[in-house]
Structure formats: structure tokens, C-alpha cells
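User: Show me a protein chain along with its predicted structure.
Assistant: Here is one chain, sequence first, then C-alpha cells.
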Amino acid sequence: MPARLSWPWLLVAVISRTSCAVEHTSPQSLDFVSVLAGEVHQVRRNGLVELIEERDDDQATQAANEHDQTEDGTGVLLPGKPVADYIGPSFATVTWPAPADQLLGLPTARNIVGYSLVASKGGQRVKTVEVKGSTALAARLPGLEPNTEYVINVMTRLGSGLTSAGPSATFKTKTSEPGAVVKPTISNVGMTHVLLKWSAPVNGGAPIKFYRIQKQRDGSGDYSPIVENGIVMEDTGNANVERVIRGLHPGKVYAFKVQAVNSVGNGPFSERSNHAMTAKRSVPGPPGAPIVSEVTTRGLTLTWDPANSHGSEINGYQLMVKKSTDAEFFNFENVLRMQDLKIIDQKLSYRIDNLTPGQSLLFKVRSFGQDGYGPLSSPSLAAYTRGTVPDAPGACTVDNVTSNSAHLQWTAPADNGDAITNYNIFEQEGSRGGYIQIVRGFKGTEYTRQGLKFGGIAYQWRIQADNKFGPSPMSAASDTVTTSYDYALETKKRLLDDTATSKLSQLRDRLRMLAAQTVQALTGEKNATSSASEERRVAEKAMQTAKESKAEVITEKSVAAQQMILQKQSSLRALALQQQASDDKMDVLKAGATAERNTANQNAADANKKINKYKSLVAASETKAEEDTLKIRKMRMEGCKHGIVKWCP
């Protein structure tokens, strides 16, 4: 090469000698900085360097001499901008372009002994990797945090020290599965549970969602998921770093390991915990005291905390009850199976609906299982079922049925919280006559019904009880009973009925006769009135004839006036006498009819008095017959008591 080459030829020669190095640099582009006071500029064009402006040989020589006098003043020994390739959760491979002097093969490049790759986070330097050799233009950054942004740059290491940092670049690590959980610890060991604790591992750049726990039993063998209340717990469901492991068996050796899970995947399982043995089984402890709620007339709800099983299998619970009249607690029904109970907020609950209204009750509860009964709980607070109307009395029984009476008896029902004050009695006569109330407010449970109709009349009765809450339902109907026949009383009654019938028949005949006489008198009166009316009509007709003859009389007044007057007077006198006789006869007939009517009325009144007298006699006779019957019955009962068997009923 000539002693003095123009600047372009010098650059081409250098590039020719270092083409191998250029080919091994980053494929992104080569960064060059100004070498001749800004005359050659940074160029990026497919890995090739182009000359922007030429200078003569003197200018090139002068620039080279000036460069020899400084190593980093112009930045020609600084590496290019780094690039992070192959980024993982905890590492990144970084490459960078060589300094311009090294690319140009200048003598100053001989001072390069290596590079320092620096990573910073949040403005603080966190990692430095030293690279030896001037041609080593790549390095691996280990120990990084996942999902974290880092700033990197490179400094050239010279024999005399480090240059200033080159241009910086930024990259972010990837997320990954969580790291391994630290060996978990066991504490608070019970018969069926332990407390397992662990520390959260590195989360791999994504929050831990939950943990998986597996257990090993008897100190060896395979691991399996934990099971609680018959349910396989696939995961903890949260990121808590402790958990009470339940559902273990008493007196068994257990060990556990834990695995963290995030959105990327599952981390490795932890180292196995130390072994721990659960406590051995014993009789369950006492349940919590029952709490009473939802009290009604005949029911209430009991709720209690379950007993601590102490490793013993609990199959159910026995309720104990004490009424206000009891001296101690007694079993209430049979043992309640677990499937008979409801579980509400980890408490057991049972509904009772067959209690008696108006009672004061106390309850206790105890467990029952493979080791028998556990201890009793503390008693509940006193519970009071609400009072209500009494139950229906027992069906009425009937005995001592006579011709006109019957003896009723019934059993008192449950008062349902308030004493029974009285009873009401309802009676039905005949098979379908309907019940009517015959007694109200009766005290007692026996009653003798008097005044029944004798002679085969059917009767039924129903009873109703009262307390302060009101009347009870009516009892069932009694058996149908029929009153008996009293033949003596029946014969006497028939004789009296026959006598009364005969007398009534005679009275009826007499009344018929009086009625006929009254009709005859009225007929005579009517006939007399009719005769008088006829005679009056004849007289009126005669008077009319006289008036018609008046004209003739006037014409003949001179001759026959006196004769006519005399004749007229004679006729009028005869008519008057006849009218008088008719009136007298009418008065006689009226007087006779009135007398007959008065006599008939008096006879009817006398007959009514006799009828009333006979009725009184009949009633007195019936009363006397009843008294005689009672006396006879009493005498028979006394005779029966004294040994007269045939007098016994």
C-alpha cells in the first residue's frame, strides 16, 4: 500500500482487512461515529459503510495523529448499542457492535482487553458481567427477575481502565412458572387435622393464583391430594401460605409437599415436610348448647355446634328433653342420623313439629357414634310452645238409657297450655236431625240427660271443651242410643188419651148440634125478614095503585070521595095491623135466636174449661207416673242391693 493513501482508500483497505469481523457482528447494523471531526458520519445501510466525503492525504494524516492522542475523547473506543436476544424469565443473551477503532483496525484498538456488560433496574445497577478479549462481543446475563424491565449498556475495558458507558437499550424478561416452595412445616397437630405453613416462592413474574397440596401417609408410598368432607381439594383456592389440613385419621403419620401455580403454569413441588403423627382417637366432646328458635304452637327449631369428634366417627345425635313437670332429662325420640340434620353455617339444625302447646321445655344434645354416646351438652334456655284451644274431647259414651233419660260420660282432652274451663254438649235427635246445643258452660265430664222422648227415639251427642283461647273442635259422635218403652206409663197414657178422645168427641157433637140450632135460628130470622119485606112491597104497590086511582077519585069526588076515604083508611088500618103483627113475630124470632146463640157460647166455654181441666189432669197424671216410675226404679235398685235378683236391671 503506498506511503500516502487518500482517505477513502485507507477506509476501504481497513474494511477489507476486517471483513471477517464485520460479518460476525450483529445483523442489525454497524454503528460508526465520526472519525474526522464530523466529516465521516454514522451510516446504516445493510452492513456496508459508505464514504460521505473525501479528504486529501494531509487531512487524513492529521486526523490519525489527533486520534492517537486520545482514547475515548471522541468515543471511537466505545461499543455500539447492545441488543438483548434470547430473553428468558431469568436470563438474556446480549450482543453489541465493536468500537469503531476495532473495526477500522487502528492502533488504539490494541488497548482493548475486554468489555463490561451492565444491567440496571429502576436506576440502580443490579448485575455486571465481565467479558475478556476484544473480540468477545456477546455475554449472558443470568440471575434476572421474571417479568422485569432492565436497562443495559456496555463499557470497553482498556489496559488503563474502563471507558464511559456506550449507548443503552431496554428489554423485559419473560414470565415463567413459580419457583419451588420452601420445605413446608407442620404444627398444631390434632387427631384429624394439622396446620401446614410454607413460604411463597419466586412467582415467575406472574402472581401466584393458588397452591396444590399433596399428602403422604404412613411415612412412605405415593402422594395423593387432600380430601375434606368427602371432597377432593384439587387446590387451596387462594394464595395464602398456610392451611389447616382436615379429614386426617387419628394416630397416623403424615407428610406433605406444596406446589405453587400461576397463570403460566405449575412450579415444582417443594421438598417433603417432616413427618408428623396425628393424635389417637377418643370419645367425642360435648356439642354446643342447643339454641331454640322459630317457636310455634307445636314446634320449634334447635341449632347447635357439632361435637369435636376426637377422631371417633359420629353417626348422629340424641336429643334430650325436660318438661316443667319432669325431674330430669329424657330421650326425645330416637337418635337423629346425620342425614336427618341440616348444616347451616357449620352448625347442625333440626326441626321438631310434634310438641304439646303451652309447654315449658329444656333441651340437651349428645353425639352418638362408633364409640357410643358422647357427653351431654349444656342445657338450652327454656322454650315455651304457644298455647291454643283444647284438643277435641274423647268420644262421648252413653249408658243407663231409660225411656226419658241417659247418662253421658267423656274424657278430658289436652288443654294445650290453658286449663279447660267448661264443656258444651250438643245433641242430635233422630239419625239426621242435626246437632243443637243443649248445655253450655257445664263443669265436669259426666252429665245425665233428662226429658228425652220415650218409645224408641234415637239420640247422639257430641262434646266441646273451652279454655281462654276459645272452643275446641267437637268430639266424635257418640254411639246412637234409643230410648226404651215404659209399658205402664204407655198404658196409662193411652187410657187418658182414650178418655180425652171420648170427651172431646162428645163435646164435638154438642158443638155440632149448637151450630145446627144457630143455623136454624138464623134461617128463621132470614125468612121472617123476607116475609116482612114482601108485605112492605105489596103495601108500596097498593099505595102506587092508590095514587094512580087518585085522578079517578078526584073526578068522582063529589060522589065517592067519602067512600074512597073510608075504604082507604080501612085498608091502611088493616095493613098497619098486619105490619105490627109481622114486627112482633120478628122480635120473637130474634129473641129466640139470641138466646140460643148465648146458650151455645156458654156451652162452648164450659167445654173449653173441661178440656183444659182434662189436660191438667193428664199432665198431673204424667208427672205422677214419672214419679211412680222413679220410685219403682229406686225400690228395684234397693231390692237389688238387698238380694232380689229379678229386680236388678
